[in-house]
Amino acid sequence: MNAPTSVTVRVPAKVNLRLAVGPVRGDGYHGLVNVFHAVSLYDEVTVSPRSDLAPGQAVLSVDGERPDHVARVPLDDSNLAARAAALLARHVPHATGVHIHVHKAIPVAGGMAGGSADAAAALVACDALWEGDTPRERLLELAAELGSDVAFPLIGCTAVGTGRGEQLSPLPVQGTFHWVFALVDGGLSTTKVFAEYDRLRPDAPEPTLDDALVAALAAGDARRLGAALTNDLQPAALALRPELGDLLEAGRAAGALGALVSGSGPTCAFLAESADHARELAAALRASGTCADTVTAHGPVPGATVV
Q1: CB atoms inside a 10 Å sphere around CB 53
Q2: How far apart are CA 109 and CA 264, in angstroms?
Q3: Which is catalytic among the residues 43, 118, 127, 149?
Q4: Residue 104 annotated as catalytic
């Protein structure tokens, strides 16, 4: 059987339903209790062999629907997808150089883990290209080496992440939840948001999981879920980008069941009652003048998948 000439993997964005942030640990990371929820907003990562490159070495290209977002994607070795290919190449016997092409739909530097999702997709795609047959548990370990948010896109659906967010346990979810994501111009540095969090909360308590949120997910109750959404990084994001407060308030005024900054921001997430309500809410947010654009999505959805 001939090896594939290219492999494409579709990988979802995430929204944090609960992001509880503890104090800085001895290793420099914050302890987290992070409820990840995969939503139907996807990047596609395609890998193909390059015989002129060393095993694991990558060249990157990017396109997408938003040129301003595409322009912010690094094309050097700092790109997490390139680092994923290099890491996996050290663990499989038939690695080659690769061309990695990313079709972007997940916002860049938007708090939805687009870069981490692309790294997860690159692990899956390169493993298929190189016929590595790497066990899923090993891919999860490699993902955790790359970053705190890289493991979750491998499994998708809904899960709680502990440690620095990379130790995952699936959570049961009933039904489908409908979301609106409001995009704003510019990004927010995760490092700067965490630094501001440390300034605002120097005595942060140990993070915990919220039983009310877990129960709302298990029951498929959107209203209860909306009331339970929390993000400890939100005050820090608002301190750095105060205008996000107006965006969150516009969503609440338009009937969102819940509203929060997604991860480290600046994208904001709004929970809707239904797909129709999500479309109405998206239109109201665009008309409010508080965001550059909106996208609708639903969740939970599966993780990285070969297409």
Answers
A1: 14
A2: 9
A3: 149
A4: no
210 carries an active-site annotation: no
Structural domains of the chain in order of their starting residue, each with its CATH number? 7-170 (3.30.230.10), 177-299 (3.30.70.890)
Give the pLDDT band (50/70/90) at residue 231.
very high
> Which segments are annotated as binding site for ATP?
107-117
- Rounded Cα–Cα distance for residues 24 and 227 (Å): 28
pLDDT at 1: 54
Binding residues: 107-117
With contact defined as beta carbons under 8 Å apart, do 154 and 142 qualify? no
- Mean pLDDT computed over 122-140: 97
- How does the average pLDDT of the chain come out, rounded? 95
Report how far residue 135's alpha carbon sits from residue 114's, in angstroms, rounded to the nearest whole number.
Answer: 24
pTM here?
0.94
Strand-pairing partners, residue 302, are 156
Catalytic residue among 14, 104, 127, 232: 14
Distance CA 3, CA 73 (A): 29
Instruction: Give residue 25's pLDDT.
Output: 85
